[in-house]
Amino acid sequence: MRTKPWSLAGLCLLAVAIIFSGCAKKDPAVKFAPQIEKLLAFWNSGDFTGIEDVLHEDFEMRMSPMFTAEKGIAAFKESVSKTRESYPDFLITVEEGFYSENAAAGRWTIRATGKNGQKMNVMGISMLHFADGKIKDEWISSNDLLWMEQLGYQLLPPASKEDR
After folding, report:
1. Is 53 helix (H, G, I), strand (E, B) or coil?
2. Beta-strand (E) ranges in 8-163?
3. Confidence (pTM)
4. DSSP string, 128-152
5. 26-154: in CATH 1.10.3290.10
6. Where are the domains of the chain?
């Protein structure tokens, strides 16, 4: 039995489509967005269930202004717990996110109420890197002056020589 020319061409096109669909670039957001959502859930709830599946064992968190590394999952838990102790309704909302092959960046807003009733509303950005399918590090930068002003602090110029 002879194969019809159009069916052979159709099979060739199907084979080419299958080959090229395997070569298509995968959207990194599909891979990393669930990890970032879980990271936000740790901050927003204080519940660390499954954290070893999200944060790399060598995780480092660096925050402005000094960006000194807080190393390890235990240090992350401690930082989140202290933050939530000071601001029980602490909530981070991601406003915008960007993804690349092994990194992500996002612009976010923190809303919280201090123990003395101060309403906090501060924006910032984070850059995250991934290794072995987990979050390897996070670099966090926010407006620390705005945070302090909302707590009632003031930035004053240094006293002049006449004032001393």
Report:
1. helix
2. 55-63, 69-71, 91-99, 103-113, 119-131, 134-142
3. 0.79
4. EEEETTEEEEEEEEE-HHHHHHHTT
5. no
6. 26-154
- Per-residue pLDDT reduced to its tens digit, 118-164: 899 999 999 999 999 999 999 999 998 998 899 889 989 998 877 66
Phi-psi region of 55 (alpha: psi -120 to 50; beta: other; left: phi over 0): beta
Tell me, what DSSP letter sits at residue 157? P
The three-state DSSP-derived secondary structure of 30-45 is: HHHHHHHHHHHHHHHH
- Among candidates 106, 104, 109, which has minimal Cα distance to 96? 106
86-127 pLDDT, tens digit per residue, is 999 999 999 999 999 999 999 999 999 988 898 999 999 999
Three-class SS state of 119 = strand
- Structure-token pair, residue 108: 């976010």
Which residues, in sequence order, are bridge partners of residue 22? none
Q: Are 105 and 97 in contact (CB under 8 A)?
A: yes
